């Protein structure tokens, strides 16, 4: 079943066209990786799906962006509700200056959840889901800043999971981490796809190969090739994709 | 277990399945030849298609694993070993098939027991089959010594192969009317000797995977 | 080949030590200047400091007695100006940094705020007199003085708040939005707690400035000699800086009042110092708390 989808999407920053007629769909419970050189529009494309681009002035979006078959740029869409359904993890770990517990509980609290036992249960399951529980269970009320970079990023994943999204967007989630932490995040992604649909932007081609089921190659705002990751990395059909994945680019 | 470990475990178990299939093909070809059973021979020819499909699948899996997971060190050696063992197994299965083809298309109802006797074809078959199952066991138990031990059996096969020229020509001189069967059996002995060589290759791959040692071509390896 | 020969490395070492000693001497010079001024005031003023000096009314044409009403007056003015300028300034700062879209309007307001901060304080005094004292008919009163001082600190408070908010990394905001939080929730629960140590430090430092200003209170509140405490916000009060000015320039007997002047200066400096220390302690406490919460 198709979970998220874009149809003929064009996106402009002022006069600059950052996305050109992008049509692409992601199946439920799969991992889609977006790869491509810097400035190819892959991060911009990712941010379409939780309307993070709205924060930028002077932006214009054409075409349809669908989540569960619903156009999320329709007038009647509540952006806060959309962002509960479509969670996001950022490049740099950005825990709030609060305790580990409060970081995970934050999304619930701002969305009006007050039931203490429910929050506690959610915090625990989210931390377990993010493979962080064992490391933090004895210091839930310590500052999140005491955690290592890799742990902070898993905390941010737990924070995103706590509000029960069905889609998780990841914008280069491991680019600021050491190899061991990166491997942990990648393992986590394999686990998470059982329950979530994941779209990940990455500069690291090996990472895309390791974690994703489908890979999309973007170049100059265009979706050049989209297909099964195994095909993209063994037998890409487009010469640009071939050059990029083999490192012969530019 | 990491994702890569899961993939490697899957690859291994697929290889063992392929191995069992090939082992069964060789054993069946023995039965088909000794008992001159055309039904078994037909079954072997049918199953050969499965072996070919399996080979393609394993090749594809290895290719994907290397492309997607960039395995290194022991993981890389295992992947490469699987890739090469796979090729050897497929060749072995091919020999089983051509033995079956002989049985199937031979217009005789049975072979002269004397021919089977003088060529010691049963022993040769058993040795080849042992080599195939022992190398399998060696990989299963990750035991490189066990793999090396199979080389002894290969020596026996080589010896029988050398003797076979004299034995067969003697037999043809005695039974000129059976020269066709005798020559076919001669080629079967050659095939079984080749199976032994393939098993030796497999044993070498196991050692390469386990100990990172290259035994091929008398050990012209990078150790020094 | 060794590209570093011994003469270049010697030269590097020499220039290094010359610059090091220049920097060191300069900082010693600044420090010693500060300590000379402080020492001078403490040396002359410490002898008149006593419990009585701090808690009694001035007597004998201000050559005797204490400065109690001036201390109370200064504290009243600090309190009044804070009540006026902090809420308005902080909210304006939040609006300018978080809500207002960067455009001609915001740039204009920002420029005006900066200009306001550069206006001499005597102009504020005259403005306060004409608006609060005369037009609004508050008379010379705590109210008029507090409002004038408040106006004076407003640009500082706005700038401080804006700078503190600007220093909050945007990733905190986007992180919060991505969890479905509204803008107000994001500001209240994430941005302000992070910015609060800096905002509060800035606010307290502006108090230090308020307590030392003379010109804005000259025409709006300060009494030359008023040996009683205020009863309402419409009363006049004495204030430390103005009292000091009076003692030093226009008392009945300037020579006799000189020790009193040093004492007053010492008290004023002490008050400013206390506020600065408070600001430091509070900042340290808050930034710890922000991390821990």
Outline the structure in words.
The complex is a heterotrimer of chains A (about 250), B (about 220) and C (about 290). With about 250 residues, chain A is of the alpha/beta class. Chain A has helices at about 40-50, 80-85, 100-110, 115-130, 135, 150-160, 180-190, 205-210, 230-235, 240-245, and strands at about 1-15, 15-25, 30-35, 60-65, 70, 85-90, 165-170, 195-200, 215-220, 220-230. Chain A is built from ten helices and ten strands. In chain A, α3 (about 100-110) packs parallel to α6 (about 150-160) and α4 (about 115-130) crosses α6. Chain B contains eight helices and no strands. In chain C, β1 (about 60) and β2 (about 65) form a beta hairpin. The model of chain C has no long low-confidence stretch (mean pLDDT about 85). Classes of the chains: A alpha/beta (about 250), B mainly alpha (about 220), C mainly alpha (about 290). The interface of A and C includes residues 55 and 90 of A.
Keywords:
heterotrimer; B: 224 residues; mainly alpha; Methane Monooxygenase Hydroxylase, Chain G, domain 1; 8 helices; elongated; disordered C terminus; C: 293 residues; MetI-like fold; two-stranded antiparallel ribbon; 11 helices; 2 strands; 76% helix
Topology (elements, then pairings):
The complex is a heterotrimer of chains A (250), B (224) and C (293).
Chain A: E1 2-13, E2 16-27, E3 31-35, H1 42-48, E4 59-67, E5 70-71, H2 79-85, E6 86-89, H3 100-110, H4 116-129, H5 133-136, H6 149-162, E7 167-171, H7 179-192, E8 197-201, H8 205-211, E9 214-219, E10 222-228, H9 229-234, H10 239-245
Chain B: H1 3-34, H2 38-69, H3 73-105, H4 113-119, H5 121-140, H6 144-174, H7 179-211, H8 216-219
Chain C: H1 6-45, H2 51-55, E1 58-59, E2 64-65, H3 68-99, H4 104-118, H5 121-135, H6 142-166, H7 170-178, H8 183-212, H9 215-218, H10 240-249, H11 254-292
Antiparallel strand pairs in C: 1-2
């Amino acid at each position: 079943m198709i979970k998220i989808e874009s149809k003929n999407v064009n996106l402009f920053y002022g006069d600059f066209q950052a996305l050109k007629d992008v049509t692409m769909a992601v199946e439920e419970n799969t991992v889609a990786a977006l790869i491509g050189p810097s400035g190819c529009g892959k991060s911009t494309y990712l941010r379409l799906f939780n309307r993070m681009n709205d924060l930028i002035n002077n932006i214009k979006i054409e075409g349809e962006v669908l989540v569960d078959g619903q156009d999320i740029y329709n007038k009647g869409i509540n952006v806060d509700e959309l962002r509960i359904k479509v969670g996001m993890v950022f490049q740099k770990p950005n825990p709030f200056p609060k305790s580990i517990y409060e970081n995970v509980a934050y999304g619930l609290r701002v969305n009006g959840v007050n039931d203490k036992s429910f929050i506690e249960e959610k915090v625990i399951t989210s931390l377990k889901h993010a493979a962080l529980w064992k490391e933090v269970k004895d210091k839930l009320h310590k500052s999140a800043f005491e955690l290592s970079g890799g742990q902070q990023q898993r905390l941010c994943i737990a924070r995103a999971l706590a509000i029960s999204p069905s889609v998780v967007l990841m914008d280069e989630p491991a680019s600021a981490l050491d190899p061991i932490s990166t491997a942990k995040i990648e393992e986590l992604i394999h686990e998470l796809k059982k329950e979530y649909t994941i779209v990940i932007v990455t500069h690291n081609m090996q990472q895309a190969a390791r974690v994703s089921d489908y890979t999309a190659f973007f170049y100059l705002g265009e979706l050049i090739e989209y297909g099964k990751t195994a095909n993209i990395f063994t037998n890409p059909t487009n010469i640009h994709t071939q050059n990029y994945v083999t490192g012969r680019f530019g | 277990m990491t994702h890569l470990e899961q993939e490697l475990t899957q690859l291994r178990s697929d290889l063992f399945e392929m191995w069992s299939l090939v082992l069964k093909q060789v054993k069946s070809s023995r039965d088909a030849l000794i008992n001159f059973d055309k039904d078994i021979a037909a079954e072997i020819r049918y199953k050969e298609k499965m072996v070919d499909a399996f080979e393609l699948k394993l090749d594809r899996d290895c290719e994907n694993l290397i492309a997607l997971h960039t395995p290194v060190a022991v993981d890389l050696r295992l992947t490469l070993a699987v890739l090469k063992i796979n090729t050897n197994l497929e060749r072995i299965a091919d020999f089983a098939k051509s033995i079956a083809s002989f049985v199937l298309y031979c217009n005789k109802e049975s072979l002269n027991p004397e021919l089977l006797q003088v060529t010691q074809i049963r022993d040769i078959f058993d040795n080849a089959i042992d080599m195939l199952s022992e190398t399998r066991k060696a990989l299963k138990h990750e035991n490189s010594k066990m793999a090396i031990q199979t080389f002894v059996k290969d020596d026996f096969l080589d010896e029988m192969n050398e003797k076979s020229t004299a034995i067969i020509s003697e037999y043809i001189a005695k039974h000129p009317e059976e020269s066709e069967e005798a020559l076919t059996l001669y080629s079967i002995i050659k095939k079984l000797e080749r199976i032994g060589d393939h098993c030796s290759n497999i044993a070498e791959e196991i050692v390469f995977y386990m100990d990172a040692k290259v035994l091929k071509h008398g050990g012209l390896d990078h150790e020094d | 080949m060794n590209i570093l020969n011994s003469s270049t490395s010697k030269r590097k070492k020499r220039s290094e030590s010359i610059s090091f000693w220049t920097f060191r001497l300069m900082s010693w010079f600044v420090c010693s200047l500060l300590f000379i001024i402080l020492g001078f005031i403490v040396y002359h003023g410490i002898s008149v400091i006593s419990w009585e000096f701090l808690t009694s009314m001035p007597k004998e044409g201000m050559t005797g007695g204490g400065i109690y009403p001036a201390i109370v007056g200064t504290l009243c003015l600090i309190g009044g100006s804070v009540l006026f300028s902090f809420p308005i300034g902080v909210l304006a700062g939040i609006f300018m940094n978080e809500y207002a879209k960067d455009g001609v309007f915001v740039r204009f307001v920002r420029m005006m705020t900066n200009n306001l901060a550069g206006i001499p304080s005597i102009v504020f005094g005259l403005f306060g007199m004409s608006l609060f004292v005369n037009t609004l008919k508050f008379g010379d009163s705590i109210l008029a003085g507090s409002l004038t001082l408040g106006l004076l600190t407003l640009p500082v408070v706005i700038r401080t708040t804006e700078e503190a908010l600007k220093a909050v990394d945007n990733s905190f905001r986007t992180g919060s939005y991505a969890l479905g939080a509204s803008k107000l929730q994001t500001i209240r629960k994430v941005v302000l707690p992070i910015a609060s140590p800096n905002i509060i430090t800035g606010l307290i430092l502006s108090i230090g400035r308020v307590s030392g200003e003379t010109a804005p209170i000259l025409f709006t509140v300060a009494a030359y000699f008023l040996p009683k405490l205020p009863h309402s916000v419409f009363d006049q009060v004495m204030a430390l800086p103005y009292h000091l000015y009076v003692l030093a320039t226009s008392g009945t007997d300037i020579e006799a009042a000189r020790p009193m002047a040093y004492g007053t200066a010492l008290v004023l400096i002490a008050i400013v110092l206390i506020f600065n220390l408070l600001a430091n302690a509070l900042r340290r406490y808050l930034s710890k708390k922000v991390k821990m919460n």
